[in-house]
Amino acid sequence: MAIVDIGSNSVRLVAYERLSRSPTPIFNEKVLCGLGKGVATTGLLGTEAMDRALGALRAFKVLCRNLGVADMRVLATAAARDARNGPAFLEAATAALGADIELIGGTREAELSALGVSSGFHGADGVVGDMGGGSLELIDVRGHALGRGVSLPLGGLALLDASRGSPKRAAKLARDALMKAPPIRGIEGRTFFAVGGTWRALAKLHMRARGYPLNVMHGYAIPAADALALGALAERSDGDDLGGLATVAAARRPLLAYGAAVLEEIVRLGRPREVVISAMGVREGSLFERLDAAARAEDPLFAAVREINVQHARHAGHGPELCTWTDHLYSAAGLPETSDDTRLRHAACLLADIAWRAHPDHRGDHALSAIANGTFSGVDHAGRAFLALSVTYRHGGGEGDAQAGLRALLTPQRLERARLLGAALRVAYQLSAAMGGVLPRTALRCSKTRITLALPGDLADLASERCVGRLRQLAKLIGRDAEVKVA
User: Which residues form the Ppx/GppA phosphatase N-terminal domain (predicted)?
Assistant: First the structure.
């Protein structure tokens, strides 16, 4: 299946493997056409922009045919709905793509964007802002419950036109419009979820400035004070001089100052606790609303890691057994956990065999990269670091200089838990050889001074020197001695 998004700044095709709670993109193509440029002042879509967009849509039609796409949904947003020649363009676009196009209004666009955020964050709570080329949509989100969305003419291209190229005037226009927007009054002390390519580009600048160890945009958190400083930097700089943004398309760079101006006014007026980047918006929301209620209620992280476990583990049943086996260990050892701690531990268990096809000397690095940079959602960056390091520790790595940045994302307590979980996984894999049905026949029992590995008689020979050595490493981390008992 595929989604085509005809936006004011870009035209994009994303093809997905299938409709699911954790959809996997198999192809992603974007063309920056700038359809919204000039609409605010002329009321018309530009001829060159329309030609570029129609060419992109004709290419998308062929790509979808080659991909075997049987289900295509096409959405058009602000530029096409606001321009006087929008209907004529949509007629030509329908012919170019060979598919019907849904022209969505501003309120509907806000709802879809919020559904996208809701689908990509576990228990999202805050206000979603989706800044495109032609408009800014704002809407409150609490889990899967949405407020009433509003649409404002504060897209990057629209502001560029309306302000006559002045970011300072753009900030004034943004401030005047935002002061009247009801969702702004509900942000204080909560999260502002930022959707849109211009804000993602600004986040890249912030990442580079702080030497951030991950290159994952989804879930990247910017403290409110930093968002204000980032805006000032962008407003002072010419788009071509913003260092660190070589990866940002040249057509987008002039819009960064306008994106920063809007973000700064949102932070000043709304006073959110933080700004969190969402890579999921209208497209993902349009998929999410097609799921049934049971699928929508699933935890997005677990929907993803369960699928990864089935696709990549040597035995699909082993990961769930690891969850139960470590449940018993943590309970017996009296290791307290919050619900989020347990959630992350279980996710790590389901990801623990992700690197088995790599060379043994490189499995830790492979696991670290696959998990730290994975496309799954529903986890913040500290949680992502915990998952990556836990599985890296399971392979005997994790303490090198290359992992120092990830370790710095964790509190000392959570870092110790990652080491402990990795040590427990090392014992488990030594016993089970990654096969199902073995761990349920073993047990780890704890007293105040000792951790005991209990084995049935037919598994007694598994208590090898290596197994006992790993058990001792685990015991050391929880302050106990180690022993093996055979029933």
Answer: 21-292
